[in-house]
Design brief:
Blueprint (H helix, E strand, L loop, with lengths): L1 H14 L41 H28 L2
Length: 86
């Protein structure tokens, strides 16, 4: 019983010493979405679009190889434009 009385008195003594917390400024960084403004990537005129059925095999292969290189360049432009928005 004696310990309970001591604890109650100790807690009562602490109740009178309430201090106001000191105000402080805290900076919180929050990401804000920003609209991406990049130039649209123009779709090239593909080399294979002009192929005809009557073209020789050599012309078709050359056009398809050129088309492949065009597509690789186009993909690089799209990736670069996408990277700007990150």
């Amino acid at each position: 019983m004696r310990m309970v009385m001591i604890s109650v008195l100790a807690l009562a003594g602490c109740a009178g010493q309430v201090e106001e917390p000191e105000p402080r400024v805290v900076r919180v960084e929050v990401p804000i979405p920003v609209p991406c403004t990049t130039e649209p990537v123009a779709v090239p005129a593909w080399a294979a679009d002009g192929l005809r059925r009557s073209d020789s095999l050599e012309e078709k292969v050359r056009a398809l190889l050129a088309d492949r290189r065009q597509r690789q360049g186009y993909e690089k432009e799209l990736l670069a434009a996408n990277e700007v928005c990150r």
